[in-house]
Amino acid sequence: MSRTAPDPADALAGLDGLDTEASAPPRPRPGEVELRLAPEAAERMRAEIARAGGREVCFLASVTPERVVVDPRAVARGNHAAVLAAARDEPEGGVMIHNHPSGVLEPSDADLGVASHLWDEGLGTAITDNAVSRLYVVVEPPRPRVRTPLDPDGLEALVAPGGALSGRHGGYEDRPGQREMIRAVAERYNDGGVLLVEAGTGTGKSLAYLLPAARWALDNDERTVVSTATINLQSQLAEKDLPLVARLLEGEDASRESLTGEDRGLTWALVKGRGNYISIRRLDLARLGAPELFEDDRSRELEALREWVQTTDDGSLADLPEVPSPEVWDEVRSDPDICLRSRCPHFQECFYQRSRRRAAQARILVVNHHLLFTDLAVRRATGNWTQSAVLPAWGRVVLDEAHNVEDAATSHMGVEVTRSGLYRTLSRLDRRGKGVLSAIQDEVKTLGDFGAEMRRRIEERGRPAVDEVRVALDLFFDEVEPLVGGARPGEGEAVRIAAPPPEVPGEVRSPMLREQVIDEPVARPEVAERLRSLLDRLQRLERELGHLRRRIEDHDEPSAGLEGRLLDLRSAERRTSAAQVALKLVLEPGDRADEYVRWLEMRGRGRRRNLALSAAPIELGPVLREALWARADTAVLSSATLTTRGRFDFLRGRLGLDPAGLADLEHPPEVAEAVVASPFDFSTQAMLVVPTDLPPVADTGALDRATARVVDRLARHTGGGIFVLFTSYRSLRSVADLLRAGGVDRSWPLFVHGEEDRGRLLRGFVEHGDGILLGTASFWEGVDVPGDPLRALVIQKLPFRVPSEPVTAARVEALEAKGANAFWDYMLPLAALRLKQGFGRLVRNRDDRGAVILMDDRIIRKRYGRYLRDSLPDAPLRKGPWAEMDGLVRRFYEP
Fold first, then answer.
1. Within a 10 A sphere around the Cβ of 232, how many other Cβ atoms?
2. Which of 94, 96, 435, 538 maximizes the CB count within 10 A of its CB?
3. Closest listed residue to residue 751, CA positions, set 737, 771, 734, 733
4. Is the pTM of this model over 0.90?
């Protein structure tokens, strides 16, 4: 088997920005003074060319404000790569000049390509002859940008007492921490580099980073991307905070003008992934070709979508009253591989293109972490750092909820291929005589001999190729799926691919940990054979789809319907190619095996069970340093939970911002830190209660029963208004059943994670006011319920990550291989951040008050408990038998 290391960049498909072209050389501005060489510069260049024997020499030179080229220096002899490397350190506004020994100054394709790259670096390009008597300007050098620095005092004054905010906001409170953060963010915008800022709950951090970002956009016409982890915060930023910021800045200086002298206001856009939008053209094609595309009758779904398209302004899934079936949405959603762009008859009204135009015009883009890191993945794959990709070009970024950055980046810097995804690609092409191939046959049936040839080719080669892949997939998954059978059942079954750790005499290793690791699947001859057969057939299908596409492209002008199906073929080609790369990286990683954690995971239950094969980088620090920190002019990382024990060391190490890692960069960014305290008084507003006589966390059943009893008692003291946070969905279900069996839901309604979507559960909890909400992972953070509806918090267990989870296990092993203590250096800091997030759900304003009941006494019993306690807000700690704590809690809530 081939051991060539696959590149995960080749597994990207179905994303904007993958088809990159050199940007067109910009035209000179009207009235631009012609570039000319200073006599001394020309003489120096002639001498250097003569020393090179008349061969090609490349120079970098400066350009004066009068457009005169001065101070040329030779940087390479006919080596464009060396020129590009040298240009990285060249000040903006200079020019690269090289001679054509032939005397013909017309630029070649290679010259134009280099000119485009140099323009991206802020340099122009010109060609001269050996005598340096003529100068052909390929691309005029841009004039160096003159940036207007921010005024930290002025920005701070906007939110200070007596400032613009106090006059516009009825509930205004002076927040010294907010003013402190505004100043820190403004300094990073002015000086560049990275800011890590932990802003405690209630700081008002959104305004603290939006005001500098917006002022910078207005003064310098430069874009900032604001990235968050949750939909709630994105909506708040776009619908509430940014309109307020715009009003504050308009009031500060209504007479500000743009560089062109035109009045200009702040522009922003909430950007969603392309797959969230419907394609009007694809919807029309799906309605027309439904009999050939769908195995079942989908006409009612398609007609409902058509009616919705005529009334919606948004055109995204979020605006749909009812989510369509996956088969239908896959056929009608916007897809870059199947997009006609400006040739589409619906281009002007296209919902995605409208959103893209808004984003291109906006200077503040609000996105989620997943979209940001998808954009970075495409930029890394294509080497495009200055043009549009998934997002428009940007130079500054704010990462809010930044404690999630490592997890978000992990999922987008690797690969994943799923059984359902592969079968869906095949079904789109052909399933029981329906699909894209049938639609093509229908489109070409009137095209005479060519149409007959295409129909015959599809019947004799296309459909059989699809069927062969389907059979190969069945056989492949028959061999691979049993490998996950030993995994721990229940909340997702996963096994990591790695060499089993060596047995240590006398060491008792958990059977669970042994079962969660398998050696290389391809070491089994039957798996290796099935994989090779599948890859061969995928490659054959890719070639056949390419042949069909090229034959149709070479024919006369295709009809609109046939042109759409051409794009379907190209999309299937790319997805087939991407699947091959992903399968190889997971199962045949070659010399990249040590860089990636690779695993097999069974998701879902029953008929929805779906096997995923995944790989992700073990160490993200080097990737983030290269793709983000070294490239962004300013990066601000903000969250209420970035420090452990008051220090940023853990997060900096995980994200590649540690001093040792930054030393690897040629030009490392300056990294600043700030901790902004919460304005809330946790010593009087909150209390941490730890019962000491509850069942140990290892006795899950007993702890679940104790949890139900504690929640029942607590509800009697508080009248409901309780969040109960779990680390296990199984325990959540168990406690929910116990509470219902005890009749608790008859007094206080239960809102149980998994029984309704997250948004509906939260709205019901808030509207009722006396409910009990049971939540797992996503309820530990990004949930804001200020005021009376939330009065108490129960945390069942300390939120340690499952040590056998593939990514966690691989990172633990990598740390231990370096001699680090993985528990103290990784598992414990992660748990501290997560616990601080959970604790932060309770107190959201100055009037909130409540108790946190932590059912896990390891926080006071174990040596590491001090680390966790030191990472929490300074609330009083009370510990003792539950009967004693029960009375204490009752008195805490008494009027």
1. 15
2. 96
3. 771
4. no
